[in-house]
């Protein structure tokens, strides 16, 4: 990996274009390095994972809205178009709208893969827009696998080197550029074209983190889909010869100077050098439970502690010692009263570790629907326990979160539970069971089982088998087979929502 220092340059002494971060990213996208078998296998896993969580969300309001909007934008006459998850493969829409609908379905349950470093990321968000364009333009499986490897590489590298949330900028600001880079690989585009698309995509997808603060709304599901859609539109303009604000990162009114660390900003971003494989997907991890990633290990810990606490009414307090991010994003350090409100939205409860730990401790399990129902959230004994739970930042757990050694990196915490009789129950867990360093790391069989579980009652066994057979041959698929890389909800009548503008 080559490490690059990224700083602000005044307009009077501009950064040489070849030294701009956007240009260097575009060079990585244009490098035709082979994809290893290990990376290709993980790409297949994550396409299965995305399909699993997408089919489980097809009747939820944001997904219905996004699908309705997509169906109002059919493919242009004479163009192939792209598939919308849940519908039969022959139903095609314009690719940017397929990316919108499918990206929303993938993100709605907050149940797919993650990467945590200086910034947060759900790099599986790269997949829907890249699949949509591959279907629309008739690209084969090998091209698509290479594009997905690039998308993951760039988003992970940006999330490793540039923190956004410190400045209350939403993490999808790294997704627009990564999708644009993936499209550059998919289409074999010149560096200049991808560079312009990256600049446009970043410029149009920077937003504040209010979408994940306070009363969290359905926009949380739409945000990454919007970034993917915007990146496709940006690439279309770049292919037609249009330019972007530049230098988008380093300019004196660019992202670093005005949205991040200011005129004195100094970041270090590592990217693969020429001929170096794009393997960042191997540093990412998926979710066993439908909750914010930093809750995964604590859900597993609650389940493990459950046999010691059959009567949770005996609990007087629970203190979760954890890292900075967990405490301030989903813990009581966020200072969001909504995170303690039984009437809160599902999106808010998904970002409340006090609620999540209480329910997991009482139920000994976590379910993507049952654990979030209004009735479950309002149960009096749950509310009582929930309000006895607090988080504190522990410097040791913060340090482990950022540890450069992957074998020591941790996203969990230590829990101290005080009981009415004066005794305590304690436990700690560094990483979730499904994490690559966890007790039961996810392998292909687990991804398939997750898909089959979430598709039950939605997708017939025949359609499940068709999709699983197809996707596991992804690196070898012909363009006409990539066109069928979707899942039809053939056991479900898909609802439509309220009318809008389109």
From TrEMBL:
<dbReference type="InterPro" id="IPR042183">
    <property type="entry name" value="MmgE/PrpD_sf_1"/>
</dbReference>
<dbReference type="GO" id="GO:0047547">
    <property type="term" value="F:2-methylcitrate dehydratase activity"/>
</dbReference>
<dbReference type="InterPro" id="IPR045337">
    <property type="entry name" value="MmgE_PrpD_C"/>
</dbReference>
<comment type="similarity">
    <text>Belongs to the PrpD family.</text>
</comment>
<protein>
    <recommendedName>
        <fullName>2-methylcitrate dehydratase</fullName>
        <ecNumber>4.2.1.79</ecNumber>
    </recommendedName>
</protein>
<comment type="subunit">
    <text>Monomer.</text>
</comment>
<dbReference type="InterPro" id="IPR005656">
    <property type="entry name" value="MmgE_PrpD"/>
</dbReference>
<keyword id="KW-0456">Lyase</keyword>
<dbReference type="InterPro" id="IPR036148">
    <property type="entry name" value="MmgE/PrpD_sf"/>
</dbReference>
<dbReference type="Pfam" id="PF19305">
    <property type="entry name" value="MmgE_PrpD_C"/>
</dbReference>
<dbReference type="Pfam" id="PF03972">
    <property type="entry name" value="MmgE_PrpD_N"/>
</dbReference>
<feature type="domain" description="MmgE/PrpD N-terminal">
    <location>
        <begin position="19"/>
        <end position="266"/>
    </location>
</feature>
<feature type="domain" description="MmgE/PrpD C-terminal">
    <location>
        <begin position="289"/>
        <end position="474"/>
    </location>
</feature>
<dbReference type="InterPro" id="IPR045336">
    <property type="entry name" value="MmgE_PrpD_N"/>
</dbReference>
<dbReference type="InterPro" id="IPR042188">
    <property type="entry name" value="MmgE/PrpD_sf_2"/>
</dbReference>
């Amino acid at each position: 990996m080559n490490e690059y220092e990224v700083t602000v340059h005044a307009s009077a002494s501009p950064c040489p274009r070849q030294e701009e971060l956007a240009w260097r990213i575009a060079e990585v996208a244009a490098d035709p390095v082979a994809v290893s078998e290990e990376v290709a296998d993980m790409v297949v896993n994550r396409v299965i994972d995305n399909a699993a969580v997408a089919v489980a969300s097809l009747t939820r309001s944001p997904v219905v809205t996004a699908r309705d909007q997509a169906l109002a934008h059919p493919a242009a006459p004479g163009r192939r178009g792209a598939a919308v998850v849940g519908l039969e493969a022959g139903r095609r829409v314009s690719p940017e709208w397929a990316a919108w609908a499918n990206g929303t379905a993938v993100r709605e349950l907050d149940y797919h893969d993650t990467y945590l470093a200086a910034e947060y990321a759900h790099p599986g968000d790269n997949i829907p827009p890249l699949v949509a364009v591959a279907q629309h333009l008739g690209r084969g499986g090998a091209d698509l696998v290479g594009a997905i490897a690039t998308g993951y590489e760039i988003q992970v590298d940006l999330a490793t080197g540039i923190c956004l949330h410190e400045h209350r900028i939403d993490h999808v600001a790294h997704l627009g550029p990564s999708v644009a880079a993936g499209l550059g690989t998919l289409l074999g585009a010149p560096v200049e074209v991808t560079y312009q698309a990256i600049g446009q995509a970043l410029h149009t997808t920077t937003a504040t983190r209010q979408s994940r603060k306070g009363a969290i709304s359905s926009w949380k599901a739409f945000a990454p889909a919007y970034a993917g859609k915007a990146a496709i539109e940006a690439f279309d303009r770049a292919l037609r010869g249009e330019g972007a604000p530049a230098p988008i990162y380093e300019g004196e009114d660019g992202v670093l100077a005005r949205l991040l660390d200011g005129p004195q900003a100094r970041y270090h971003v590592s990217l693969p050098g020429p001929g170096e494989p794009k393997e960042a997907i191997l540093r990412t991890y998926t979710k066993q439970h439908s909750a914010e990633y930093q809750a995964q290990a604590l859900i597993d810990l609650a389940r493990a502690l459950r046999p010691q606490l059959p009567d949770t009414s005996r609990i007087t307090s629970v203190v979760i010692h954890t890292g900075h991010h967990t405490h301030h994003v989903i813990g009581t350090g966020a200072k969001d009263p909504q995170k303690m409100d039984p009437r809160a939205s599902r999106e808010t409860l998904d970002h409340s570790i006090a609620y999540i730990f209480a329910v997991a401790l009482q139920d000994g399990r976590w379910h993507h629907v049952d654990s979030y129902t209004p009735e479950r959230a309002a149960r009096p004994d749950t509310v009582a326990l929930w309000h006895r739970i607090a988080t504190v930042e522990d410097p040791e757990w913060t340090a482990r979160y950022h540890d450069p050694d992957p074998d020591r990196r941790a996203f969990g915490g230590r829990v101290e539970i005080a009981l009415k009789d004066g005794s305590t129950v304690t436990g700690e867990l560094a990483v979730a069971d499904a994490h690559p360093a966890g007790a039961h790391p996810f392998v292909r069989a687990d991804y398939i089982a997750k898909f089959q579980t979430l598709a039950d009652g939605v997708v017939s066994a025949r359609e499940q088998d068709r999709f699983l057979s197809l996707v596991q041959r992804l690196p070898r698929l012909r363009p006409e087979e990539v066109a069928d890389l979707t899942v039809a909800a053939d056991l479900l009548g898909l609802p439509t929502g309220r009318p809008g503008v389109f």
